[in-house]
Amino acid sequence: MKAICVTPDRELEVRDIPTPIEPAPGHVLIDMDASAINHGDKTFLRMPTAAGNALALGPHGVWGASGAGRVVAVGAGVPLAYTGKQVAVYRSLDRSPESVGLWCERAHVPYTTCLILPDHVRARDYCGSLVNVMTAYAFLEEITSAGHKGVIVTAGNSATGHALASLARRRNIPAILLVRTTAARDALARLGVEHVIVTTEGFNDRLSVLSAELGATAVFDGVGGDLLTSIAPALPMNSTIYFYGFLGGTAPFSIQSVLFMMKNLSMKRFSNFESRTVKEQARLVAALKTLEGVIDDSMFTTRIGKEFHRDQIRLAMAYESADGAKAVLVT
């Protein structure tokens, strides 16, 4: 079968590799329909240890963490409910040396990397979704167990921002989403998101009042850089900044030590792979089951910008969209 694989110098190339025929115990075979190119796919190709330990590529070095398709065979120990079902996949949820990851015609992954999709949805519309939805779920689990009552999301119009807004609303956790444009604010408002702030001049005053009122002391930061520098003075006492992404590029984040001490701020990395939700299999299975019941929420669908075939991988990796829509590889 055809697959997009990583070369020793961290480039991508299309290769012919053996088609997996028999699933290993605990694994499923999936005929892939589509795979979204998420920000992490580009980041980890350049910097394999960006989230700590590098992820094992498995046989043949097939790339790709997110996708969707249909299960065509299940291994021993896999719940029968997965048989023949269309699924969204986030390969990194469960690491296996036998995995064949998703930018190929047929993937081979642990079933605990898969979320069963309802029959009435199109699998392709969820080809980049599970990474964002699971990130939001695991993050909310972590901050509530740490005692936080509300959250500020810096990349509010991102796919993970949408997922956080929806899941926080379901759990009655106040969420403040920060966006760059009035168009993004209006789009989120149409989706029923209540607290959206455009990061134009003077927005910090509103953020300061609203975050204190809502008890939003957890910051999910997917931007870093100048935006985080700007909002630090507006954060409530005892806030924690959780670093997740770096859309702000190489711009540094800076904070006065006196402000750090006055507000008793703390900073830490958030990683799916290190969360209890993902590390403990019983919690992971429970999370996947919970998300199955809500995944058809429109805020969880993948925003597809342009579809590419496998031999167009360089064009697909270079694709950028102003509204966060993704390049999608289709079979």
TrEMBL record:
Which GO molecular function annotation, any one, does this entry have?
Answer: NADPH binding
Domain (Alcohol dehydrogenase-like N-terminal) ranges: 25-111
Q: Which Gene3D superfamilies match?
A: Medium-chain alcohol dehydrogenases, catalytic domain (3.90.180.10), NAD(P)-binding Rossmann-like Domain (3.40.50.720)
Q: Which UniProt keywords apply?
A: Membrane, NADP, Oxidoreductase, Transmembrane, Transmembrane helix
Q: Which Pfam families match?
A: ADH_N, ADH_zinc_N
Q: What is this protein called?
A: NADPH:quinone reductase
Membrane-spanning intervals of the chain: 241-262
Q: Which residues form a coiled coil?
A: none
Residue stretches making up the Alcohol dehydrogenase-like C-terminal domain: 160-285
